[in-house]
Write a structure and sequence with these properties.
Blueprint lengths: L16 H9 L8 H11 L5 H22 L9 H15 L5 H8 L1 H22 L5 E5 L5 E5 L8 H10 L5 H11 L13 H5 L3 H22 L2
Helix pairs in contact: 2-3, 2-5, 3-4, 3-6, 4-5, 4-6, 5-6, 8-10
């Protein structure tokens, strides 16, 4: 029995790998819904037919970039390139995770899922811009007695205080740990939540690792702040 798409609009079933090979070889992927192609990718899986998987993912990746670039204006930092690649990376990862929220959403409503993730990436970029404004810090103590570093008012740009604070933060040697701490200071959760992007997700690490990095950075900041006040 011959396999493959019966019409240009009707795809093979996700399990019909020979049918998908035929469609890909005939350059027919562009005539199919991206939802169906994502379902096929998830059926093939990361350990399946690598040539077929590469063809399907390449096609979906190109579709993602076209949609994302239309949604992101050039009025953002780096003309929106950071937002574009943040959203693209998160969605490509989701394509290969059928049990994830985005992985399931891409099979049901591809464009709506992309729009949601782009909006989330734009919010993250705005938070990044805000976080990287100089801010004043001071040692503090939490309710349980644990030493903390508190963020208070933002010093005026170009002030001597702002320069000192930025210099202090730059002493944290690992930029990823520094970013994890800034996300933490901004209220970003360690683990994913409804409608939110977690520290672990943004940095591509586990929630435990993110927590360890934040604790380590707190300790380093405490040492640096103490030295600055000696």
């Amino acid at each position: 029995m011959k396999t493959g798409a019966k019409t240009p609009e009707e795809p093979p079933s996700p399990s019909d790998l020979e049918g998908w090979r035929n469609v890909s070889a005939a350059n027919g992927l562009r005539r199919l819904r991206p939802e169906d192609i994502v379902a096929a990718i998830q059926h093939v899986g990361p350990h399946g037919d690598q040539r077929l998987l590469a063809a399907l993912i390449t096609h979906v990746s190109e579709q993602l970039l076209r949609i994302i670039k239309r949604l992101v204006g050039k009025n953002h930092r780096n003309e929106g390139e950071d937002i574009i690649w943040r959203a693209h990376h998160q969605l490509i990862v989701a394509v290969l995770k059928p049990n994830s929220k985005d992985g399931q959403a891409l099979c049901k409503s591809f464009r709506k899922c992309v729009e949601f993730r782009v909006a989330d990436a734009i919010r993250a970029e705005r938070k990044y811009a805000y976080r990287n404004q100089p801010f004043k810090t001071q040692p503090g103590v939490a309710d349980d007695g644990e030493d903390t570093v508190e963020t208070i008012e933002s010093p005026e740009e170009g002030s001597e205080q702002a320069a000192e604070v930025q210099q202090l933060l730059n002493r944290i040697p690992d930029p990823r740990k520094r970013e994890a701490f800034r996300l933490h200071m901004d209220g970003c959760p360690l683990s994913p939540g409804i409608g939110t992007t977690s520290i672990a997700e943004q940095l591509g690490i586990s929630a435990k690792t993110a927590g360890d990095w934040i604790a380590e950075t707190k300790a380093l900041l405490k040492i640096e702040i103490g030295a600055a006040h000696d």
